[in-house]
Write a structure and sequence with these properties.
Number of strands: 4
Shape: flat
Strand content: 5-15%
Number of helices: 2
Largest sheet: 2 strands, antiparallel
Order of helices and strands: EEEHHE
């Protein structure tokens, strides 16, 4: 989990935590903005939130990166339904091929 601090303008300087993660063949790393998890949608018009988003990422990990992209786009479109997109969305996945 990353540090909760802005990467743009800020009042006081705070160092980021340096973390090391041991990666193995076929691991996938995802970096994302809050826009996907914060999107309103579903049956009750609520935010998706991070736990369901994390579960989606875990469920698609065995797929190719192109299949993951298509799946995440489709999942988002179905979740959003007729609700307006409220924020920018960035999801980046990197597959480790040693």
């Amino acid at each position: 989990k990353g540090d909760s601090q802005p990467i743009g303008a800020f009042v006081s300087h705070k160092n980021f935590t340096c973390n090391e993660i041991l990666l193995e063949q076929d691991d996938t790393i995802y970096i994302f903005s809050d826009g996907y998890a914060d999107q309103f949608g579903g049956e009750h018009g609520k935010k998706l939130k991070y736990k369901p988003f994390k579960n989606e990422l875990l469920s698609i990990q065995p797929y190719t990166m192109e299949e993951q992209k298509r799946h995440l786009q489709l999942f988002f479109d179905i979740w959003k339904g007729n609700f307006e997109q409220i924020d920018d969305i960035c999801v980046m996945g990197v597959r480790i091929n040693a």
